[in-house]
Amino acid sequence: MDPMNRGPEDFSQDRHDDTSATGGRQRPPRDPLTPDFGQPAPALARTVQLVSGDYLLTVNPVDGSEIEPCPPGERPGRPVKYDATERIELARAARPPLPPGPALPRLPLLERQEDRERLVRLLARGRSVRLTGPSGSGRTALLDQIAEDCLDIAPDGVVRLSGHRRSASDVLYDLFGAVYNAPLHRPDRTLLLELVHEIGAVVVLDDLEFGGAALDELLEATPECAFLLSATPDVAAPSADSHVEEVFLGGLGRGSSLELLERAVGRVLTDEEAQWAGDLWFESEGLPLRFAQAGALLRQRDLLRADPNAFDEYGYYEGPEAAPVDAPFDAADGHDVPLPSLADGAAPAALLASRLSESARATLRFAVALGGEIPHQAHLPALVGDTHADAALSELVAGALVTAVGGRYRLASGVQTQLEAVGYADDVVGHADAAARHYAWWAGHPSVGPERVAAESDAVLAALLALVPSTTPPVDGGTSASVELARAAAPAFAAGLAWSAWERALRAGQEATRLAGEVPEEAYFHHELGILALLGGQLDRARAELEASIGLRGALADKRGTIAGRRALALVADRSGGALPGGRTAAGEEVPDAMYEESQSPPGGVPAAYALPEPPREPDTLVTRQAPPGPPPTVVGGRAPSRKSVVTGTRRNLVAAGAGALLAAVLGTVVTLGATSNNDEPPSDKVGTNPSASAGENGGELGADKADKGGGGGSSSSKPTDPGQDGIPGTADDPTPSTGSSGEPSDDPSGSKSPDKPTKSPDKPTTKPPTTKPPTTKPPTTKPPTTKPPTSEPPTTPPTSEPPTTPPESSPDTSDSASAPVSPTGTSATSTTTATVM
What is the pLDDT of residues 472-484, one digit of tens each? Predict the structure, then answer.
């Protein structure tokens, strides 16, 4: 089936099928070898696999492209160059198509022989030259002649390239594709520079649009090539270090202009016509394009002089833009038509278009809507609606309204502006919409290869860009033409290795889906932009685009698309060495930083009487903070100092268990000390070596020394087996230090005003004194004794009632604790110690 001529078979329907059994509805034709399921099978999606650098890319137009590291067996070999025969065939295919009909006469190059010889000499020496001239000065025609003169100069021949809307990187890839035979292989930047470094050719680059540093980059990458560059004066000049010769191409002289006009008309000019041509030469500054168009005007005048109805036979004057023709009849000379005015000669597009066929004028309307791009002649019958519309290209070429750019045609310089002034841009959106829907159908057709779509990329992108600003949400539940075109053309550009067009189509499609509110298609474009960024080494942009795509597809429950996005995102994380969301790397293991958490205090905090200062930590070590000797501080309210520990996992239950064990240990210790304390005993002058509480080794639990089983009574009337805080026995209800019967403070060395004087020894305790040597008041720096910390279970002999967490209001000694002196070690004078009970 021809994709350019749509028929009933495109819809898999038979117009002559019996409709009686379906109530008037038409059914698809039945295949006797297959069962009838009521609807035709959908067309298969066209997937293409290609290699780009170290990646294997599978272009999937349904769920999004898939990317993976290229397996060793799939890696292509080193590309090889085309031979001379293949280069000639490629050069012939790269030329613009010849219009149908008789061959048009080729205009000669006048006043260009000296420039031609100079350029050939410079290229033969390996020098690069930039040919600068205004639009319409004949630069393309001169390049064609020089390309024929330089066929045998370089080992790789002559390579013709187009710089229209191309960057330096695009030109390098185009040069690689023109010299090397590498199907479905796009080398990375390193291999590309290595391969183009070996190319020795004369590169003819027309319509260059960049200069300066970008041009220097191109020249440095290809030291064995001699470039003939063609640009307009508004393009940036080469840098001073590029050593590029500059040749300026101006207009023709008066005599050469008249000779060119005679060649275009095909006869000798009359005196009146020569005078008119002289005025035109002065107005146009001798540009050859203006005289080629003036020749077309004179040819039309000759036809009208011979027959006034010459153009009316085919309805050429139908349309609002048609200009009336004043052709008075003269019996002696026949029909006479006046010469065009000087204004028509300087801007002849409107007058020339008025004398063209309806198909040619419709083609011009599409060209104006597409920003000057002329669709390929094979698309004109479908766009215009005329089976013979492909002949319109011959009329446009003969009238010099179009010019060749690379392998296609576009409107000549100044033609679009002149046509817009006479109404050819009145329905730009309508023509762009028609072109977009046609190209969407054509680009997605299974019979159309991606290379053909890539060759038509300029017209496709022009239709897409012209339609995106006017995109609105569809009211009938369908798909916007701009979204449909971008969705069909983007994978074809990717498979055809036209990645510059691929990126432009993706960005235009993303904007169109945002305006149309089509979320599934927006997720697809985000995914493809992430794949393209990953192929280009832009990992941060790839991660952002892929995460946006995964989020949208997750909200839409698109399982297959989400899986494809997560695979690509895992490859991004692997290449960047980073981590995926959730604290996992691409391989699935947990990140060390994500496994660290701090154990936190309970919501109300661990209350304590006094906050002990924290000793300095040593670098890169886990320091276990232990309290000075003595019992733990009695609970009076407030928040205890935070104790940090390293939790061996990221599970929340471990954190909760550690916090619960910490709270249980502290409360158990407080209850035990409150049950064994006594306020009537004098302070003790002996302290033990074992701390009452320390940071345990298992999750940071606190432990306390166990009391002697033989001395524990638990009643408040018996003497305690262990001195209380600062050697003063007390109860849990009175946490402040006792002052004795006289009301004076105790004479304990740690709390008296005269620490050098000996203090009165307290009553002899009922239990055995400690056997170890008491330490000084300085906190111990050695490893604490390996006493097993108690579990979180409460003591075997609990008190009769739970001690309050705040001091009773009737306690008269609470205010004494606020004025306790501070010891030289930085701790409070009421720092607690404990004696080991034997």
Answer: 998 877 889 999 9
Structure tokens at 249: 């191409």
Q: What is the rounded distance in angstroms from the CA atom of residue 749 to the CA atom of residue 248?
A: 104
Angle between helices 254-265 and 271-284 (to 10 degrees): 120
DSSP 593: G
Short-list 267, 462, 312, CA closest to 375: 462
- Give kind and range of the element (H or E) at residue 186: strand 185-186
- Indicate the pairing of strand 55-59 with strand 48-52: antiparallel
Residue 605 gets the label, from left (phi > 0), alpha (psi -120 to 50) or beta, of left
Q: Which two tokens stand for residue 68?
A: 């993976």
In whole angstroms, give the CA distance from residue 630 to residue 690: 8
- pLDDT at position 668 is 66
DSSP assigned state of 343: H
Spell out the alpha helix ranges (H) of 188-287: 189-196, 213-221, 254-265, 271-284
Residue 752 DSSP code: S
Mean predicted confidence (pLDDT) in 772-778: 47
The domain spans of the chain are: 1-42, 105-250, 596-838
Residue 244 has pLDDT above 60, yes or no: yes
Query: Model pTM?
Result: 0.66
Of 650, 627, 760, 748, the C-alpha closest to 696 is 627
Amino acid at 409: Y
Least confident of 292-296, 333-337, 684-688: 684-688
Strand pairing partners for 228? 129, 204
Spell out the residues 6+ positions from residue 477 whose beta carbon is closer than 8 angstroms to its own: none
- Are the C-beta atoms of 679 and 730 separated by less than 8 Å? yes
Select the more confidently predicted residue: 393 or 746.
393
CB-based contacts of 315, cutoff 8 Å, min separation 6: 357, 358
Instruction: Give me the pLDDT at residue 656, please.
Output: 59
Q: Is the dihedral of CA 494, 499, 501, 504 positive or negative?
A: positive
Which has the closest alpha carbon to 374: 327, 317, 419? 419
- Nearest residue to 610 (alpha-carbon basis) of 391, 306, 838, 821: 821
- At residue 826, the pLDDT reads 42
| 624 CB-near residues (< 8 Å, 6+ apart) | 694, 695, 697
**pLDDT tens for each residue of 488-502:** 999 999 999 999 999
Q: Do residues 369 and 425 touch, judged by C-beta distance below 8 A? A: yes
Which CATH superfamily, name and number, covers 105-250?
P-loop containing nucleotide triphosphate hydrolases (3.40.50.300)
The whole-angstrom separation of Cα 571 and Cα 449 is: 30
**pLDDT at residue 784 greater than cutoff 90:** no
Rounded to whole angstroms, the Cα distance separating 653 from 821 reads 43
Judge whether residue 450 has pLDDT over 70: yes
- Per-residue burial over 250-283, b = 16 or more CB atoms within 10 Å of its CB, e = otherwise: ebbeeebbbbbbbbbbeeebeeebeebbeebbee
Tokens of residue 198, six digits: 């070996």
CA distance 256 to 109: 10
CA distance 580 to 447: 41
In this prediction, residue 99 carries a pLDDT of 87
CA dihedral angle for residue 562, residue 566, residue 568, residue 574, rounded to 10 degrees: 180
